[in-house]
Amino acid sequence: MKFYAGFSERSDAIYKHSSNLIMEAMVNIRTVYSFGMENTIALKYEKKLEEPLSLATKKGNVSGILYGLCQTILMVAVGVVLYIITLFIRKYHLQFVDMFTAVYAIGFAARTTGLNMQFVPDIASGKNSAANLFEILDGKDEEQMQIESGSTMMKEGGGRGQIEFKSVTFRYPSHKNYTFIDLSLQIPPGTKVALVGPSGCGKSTITQMILRFYEPESGNILLDGRNIKDYDLYYLRGLFGVVSQ
After folding, report:
1. Do 151 and 194 have their domain in common?
2. Residues 89, 63: Cα–Cα separation, whole Å
3. Which of 4, 104, 151, 196 could anchor a disulfide with 124, C-beta 3.0 to 4.6 Å?
């Protein structure tokens, strides 16, 4: 059961990354098509599926070995039991019918218990799904986080638009690499700023962090000299207009 549960958990995490790639490609299919990147995306997706393929192969090999081992143990156990029956009948003069009644009663009970093990993969998948569900349900929503952080819930200021990042370090929960490390940035009021870079460098992330969709691991984000955590969340987001790509 541990083997199946571990396999399900690892494969789910890998498939999540590969699914994200395909989802982003389909959402931006016009861009992908315009740059002729279909084959590149397909190769990236194929590469991401190499690891789950390796895990599935390993699972098949280990499962086959374990199944063969179980069948071997079963046949050996049956042989030993039949041999012991003959000894008991000969030495203790027990009745043949009584011996086989006991053996078959225990045997069928054990066999039924063993057949239930076929549901182990489903149990493992259900366990992982339930764990992910409870992780979401047990998580704190934005209002709870705002109250616990001691926000002043101020609804004043924020009219000038002075934005400043002070030594901000951040990475997405599902990523190993950091998006920002000690990022410092100032955007004066009334200016136009263009953020240019390859996909994944953090252009959209800056906007999402200003709107507090994500919180930095360290550092502060200031709006008109005040930490954005001091602002009422809905008031803060009402100050901005965002048009996603």
Report:
1. yes
2. 39
3. 4
